[in-house]
Write a structure and sequence with these properties.
The chain is α/β, with parallel strands linked by helices and 351 residues long. The protein has helices at residues 40-47, 52-55, 63-73, 85-96, 113-120, 138-143, 164-173, 185-188, 225-235, 242-254, 256-279, 299-308, 333-350, and strands spanning 27-28, 80-84, 103-108, 124-129, 148-152, 177-181, 201-206, 218-222, 291-295, 311-312, 314-319, 323-329. The protein has a 7-stranded mixed β-sheet, sandwiched between helices. Strands 9-12-11 form a 3-stranded antiparallel β-sheet, with helices on one face. The protein binds pyridoxal-5'-phosphate. Pyridoxal-5'-phosphate binds next to helix 4.
Length: 351
């Protein structure tokens, strides 16, 4: 029997299934997750979890977790929407605030999933290059006439931050929703949450990075109650699993000191690694996140050589305004040393 040729969605022809480049490796520095481990109180609660967290449906819109997130972010809980990772919040927000065929403008380079989420929702993604100082180009972004604008600060993969003045210009001039991705806010020690008062800003954050819970898939968005209600419609109920909600709620109440301690250690090691790299002739971009982006001549060659030494990093070919680069997640110093040793060995190979 021949398979019927089902009609597929036109915009999906451009979409590739997400795959991470790293296979088996000894030291995985490729995905910006927390290399200091899992938050201890959250881990304890998962070990003791009650059967009801598994057999019954969780709260449809994660009410308990939202209450803790609201406290953490300094807003009321009707200003919080959760999701299966902040990915889910970004994806839902795009379809809540634009019709298929409209445009989404995003700073380039930035989070690789954004143009994918735009296409998944029938929008046309338009990348707008960052300026030479890695700030957003407010004029060019507004000139696209986009329904949805995506900004990211600190930005993945550059690690750089946007200036507040530029963001304010974009928010003032925009014609639709402005999403500000703060996945790395804890490492920057600053936030733009106050801009949600404008009534057109959604700030997204995640427990996947500083909080060390990437496997539980918990992210959230902060906006006015009106914006949040629309995103909740697009998202649907039950996106955060019961075990995830419980562990994330405990992490927010009992593991905050652990998290901030990890942030401090990460920043110390990030600056130390940047110095070590300079001594080897590599100049990383100024980072406010838990990773360094390091321009290299041939990212494929460097990452393959590191992989053969058991070290996974993320390679980026031909990034706008940067060229080839590798991104290294910051972790405990022995891991950074393993990376440096492997880098030195690859340099010797090239010499
Ligand atoms: C990691 C990351 C996210 C997604 O995190 P989730 O695990 O889906 O919460 C979102 N934005 C940026 C910029 C990221 O680096």
């Amino acid at each position: 029997m021949t398979a019927p040729s089902l009609r597929t969605r036109d915009a999906y022809r451009e979409i590739q299934i997400y795959s991470t480049q790293s296979g088996a490796c000894e030291v995985d520095l490729s995905d910006n997750t927390n290399l200091w481990g899992a938050p201890p109180a959250a881990l304890r609660v998962i070990r003791q979890i009650a059967g009801s967290a598994i057999t019954r449906y969780p709260l449809p819109y994660a009410g308990d977790l939202r209450a803790e997130l609201a406290r953490y972010a300094g807003v009321s809980s009707d200003m919080i929407v959760t999701g299966c990772g902040s990915d889910d919040v970004l994806d839902s927000a795009i379809r809540a605030f634009a019709e298929p065929g409209e445009k989404l403008a995003y700073q380039n380079p930035s989070f690789s999933m954004i143009p994918v989420f735009a296409r998944v929702n029938g929008l046309i993604p338009i990348g707008v290059p960052l300026t030479d100082s890695f700030d957003a180009d407010a004029g060019a972004m507004l000139a696209t006439g986009a329904r949805v604008i995506y900004l990211c600060s600190p930005n993945n993969p550059t690690g750089t931050v946007l200036t507040r003045g530029t963001i304010e210009k974009i928010v003032t001039g925009a014609d639709g929703l402005v999403m500000i991705d703060e996945a790395y806010a804890e490492f920057a020690g600053m936030t733009l949450v106050d801009l949600v008062a404008s009534g057109r800003v959604l700030v997204t954050r995640t427990l996947s990075k500083a909080f060390g819970l990437a496997g539980l898939r918990v992210g959230y968005g902060i906006g006015t109650p009106e914006i949040i209600a629309e995103i909740r419609k697009a998202r649907g109920p039950y996106k955060v699993g019961g075990v995830s909600e419980l562990a994330a709620t405990i992490a927010l109440t009992q593991d905050k000191e652990w998290m901030f301690d990890g942030v401090r250690k990460t920043i110390t090691n990030r600056e130390r690694l940047a110095t070590e790299l300079i001594q080897r002739g590599f100049k990383s971009l100024p980072s406010s996140a838990n990773f360094l982006l390091v321009p290299v001549n041939d990212c494929g060659k460097v990452s393959r050589s590191l992989a053969s030494a058991g070290i996974a990093v993320r390679a980026f070919a031909g990034l706008s305004g940067v060229g080839d680069a590798i991104r290294i997640t910051i972790g405990p110093w022995p891991m950074m040393e393993r990376f440096l040793d492997a880098l030195d060995a690859s340099g010797r190979l090239r010499a």
